[in-house]
Amino acid sequence: MGLLQLLKSQFWILLILSYVFLMSGLVVNLLQLCTLPLWLVNKQLARRINIRLAYCIASQLVAAMEWWSGTECTLYTDPKSYPLYGKENAIVVLNHSFEIDFLCGWTFCERFGVLGSSKVLAKKELAYVPVIGWMWYFLEIVFCKRKWEEDRTTVTQSLQKLHDYPEKFWFLLFCEGTRFTPKKHQISMQVAESKGLPKLKHHLLPRTKGFWVTVQNLRGTAAAVYDSTLNFRNNEAPTLLGILTGKKYHADLYVRRIPLESIPEDEAECSAWLHKLYQEKDRFQEHYSQTGRFPGPVRSPPRRPWSLINWMFWCCVMLYPLGLLLIQLISSGSMFTIVSAVAVCSAVSVGIRWMIGQTEIKRSSNYGIKEAPLNNN
Ligand SMILES: CC/C=C\C/C=C\C/C=C\C/C=C\C/C=C\C/C=C\CCC(=O)SCCNC(=O)CCNC(=O)[C@H](O)C(C)(C)COP(=O)(O)OP(=O)(O)OC[C@H]1O[C@@H](n2cnc3c(N)ncnc32)[C@H](O)[C@@H]1OP(=O)(O)O
Ligand SMILES: CCCCCCCCCCCCCCCC(=O)OC[C@@H](O)COP(=O)(O)O
């Protein structure tokens, strides 16, 4: 292990990065709160400001991945579709097997200039995660309870609001609805069998209602579906903690652009279309596991310096007062201040550990387990 790598893996470095992320995130959340009155007067301006504020938070994680860990991202895609990426609204369909799949998604958003405005159909629990969840509220992220009876109306309403969104956005859908685990896979394949659908090896059976409602409500707003399949080289199972301690991974993403008009409007046909798409995705993953690559040409966009510049800016802004405080602390020698500083450090590390925990598959929800196939009609 090199000296730099050793340094990156030190706990106190992680603590400093976490402090910068948490404190700058809370400052950004506060600024977002201040834009509330502006929504009443000039909604489009409020949205544009919030896109930039969200960029300040999300791009710190992207910088950690691209610049700190040096993780590389290769894009396999058709050269004819490539010039359209970032220039049109799109619905992105992505497999949900990795702890940092959302971060890889963000990295591509950054490279195509849509990071601040990127959206997702997210489980409601994430709305309460400090910094990220609070930021999403101002970004008009669509939340769902994964209970169709309730989601049908709320998801439709949230999607309708995006019709006049002032900047280009990608709307991410993890149609599997939860992270892949062997147990969830086994249960979802029982569901597939009970529905007479072919079994999938690398994916859970997709939930089709969210996809259908998204496509229907974004017709005329989004131009295409980007069918995206992600994998990592050398059978790696990357983690956010790995990224933050400087571990380098190599992600491969296969993207196919499918014009929205080619997707059926009828719910049953749309559902069958999505099942077929997942059967194809499964074949791409099988191809990857056999050959170590996806089909088609490679066209990788380079990383941009903006995420790093933003991160450096927040490091300077947040570390300056921390430095002053430390000097004061050491020179005062007061037991009370030292105990307070230790308490703050502990709170930061517990808070960040909890947030990182949200990304860990071993802490994944029971969704997809609790509904036994026998309960399905
Ligand atoms: C060029 C570069 C291209 C791309 C770059 C890539 C990406 C970048 C893009 C954007 C980035 C943006 C942001 C990223 C940042 C962060 C994101 C982080 C995380 C958030 C992600 C989540 O929170 S995922 C969880 C929430 N999302 C979803 O669940 C979406 C999918 N779900 C649905 O669509 C659901 O239908 C629903 C949520 C709308 C409703 O849920 P409900 O449970 O009520 O679902 P259903 O009614 O569908 O369920 C009943 C049907 O399911 C069948 N069933 C029962 N048991 C199972 C089972 N175990 N497995 C499968 N199916 C099952 C049942 O039979 C019912 O079937 P029907 O035939 O009746 O439908
Ligand atoms: C430099 C930064 C230092 C500190 C970084 C801490 C950042 C914490 C970021 C938390 C972001 C949370 C996003 C989680 C996304 C996710 O993967 O959600 C899972 C859901 O899809 C499905 O849930 P489940 O049903 O439980 O599998």
UniProtKB/TrEMBL annotation:
<feature type="domain" description="Phospholipid/glycerol acyltransferase">
    <location>
        <begin position="90"/>
        <end position="212"/>
    </location>
</feature>
<dbReference type="GO" id="GO:0003841">
    <property type="term" value="F:1-acylglycerol-3-phosphate O-acyltransferase activity"/>
</dbReference>
<dbReference type="Pfam" id="PF01553">
    <property type="entry name" value="Acyltransferase"/>
</dbReference>
<keyword id="KW-0472">Membrane</keyword>
<dbReference type="GO" id="GO:0005741">
    <property type="term" value="C:mitochondrial outer membrane"/>
</dbReference>
<comment type="function">
    <text>Converts 1-acyl-sn-glycerol-3-phosphate (lysophosphatidic acid or LPA) into 1,2-diacyl-sn-glycerol-3-phosphate (phosphatidic acid or PA) by incorporating an acyl moiety at the sn-2 position of the glycerol backbone. Exhibits high acyl-CoA specificity for polyunsaturated fatty acyl-CoA, especially docosahexaenoyl-CoA (22:6-CoA, DHA-CoA).</text>
</comment>
<keyword id="KW-0444">Lipid biosynthesis</keyword>
<keyword id="KW-1133">Transmembrane helix</keyword>
<comment type="pathway">
    <text>Phospholipid metabolism; CDP-diacylglycerol biosynthesis; CDP-diacylglycerol from sn-glycerol 3-phosphate: step 2/3.</text>
</comment>
<feature type="transmembrane region" description="Helical">
    <location>
        <begin position="308"/>
        <end position="330"/>
    </location>
</feature>
<keyword id="KW-0594">Phospholipid biosynthesis</keyword>
<feature type="transmembrane region" description="Helical">
    <location>
        <begin position="12"/>
        <end position="41"/>
    </location>
</feature>
<keyword id="KW-0808">Transferase</keyword>
<dbReference type="InterPro" id="IPR002123">
    <property type="entry name" value="Plipid/glycerol_acylTrfase"/>
</dbReference>
<dbReference type="InterPro" id="IPR032098">
    <property type="entry name" value="Acyltransf_C"/>
</dbReference>
<keyword id="KW-0256">Endoplasmic reticulum</keyword>
<dbReference type="GO" id="GO:0005789">
    <property type="term" value="C:endoplasmic reticulum membrane"/>
</dbReference>
<keyword id="KW-0443">Lipid metabolism</keyword>
<keyword id="KW-1208">Phospholipid metabolism</keyword>
<protein>
    <recommendedName>
        <fullName>1-acyl-sn-glycerol-3-phosphate acyltransferase delta</fullName>
        <ecNumber>2.3.1.51</ecNumber>
    </recommendedName>
</protein>
<dbReference type="Pfam" id="PF16076">
    <property type="entry name" value="Acyltransf_C"/>
</dbReference>
<dbReference type="GO" id="GO:0008654">
    <property type="term" value="P:phospholipid biosynthetic process"/>
</dbReference>
<feature type="transmembrane region" description="Helical">
    <location>
        <begin position="336"/>
        <end position="356"/>
    </location>
</feature>
<keyword id="KW-0012">Acyltransferase</keyword>
<keyword id="KW-0812">Transmembrane</keyword>
<comment type="similarity">
    <text>Belongs to the 1-acyl-sn-glycerol-3-phosphate acyltransferase family.</text>
</comment>
<comment type="pathway">
    <text>Lipid metabolism.</text>
</comment>
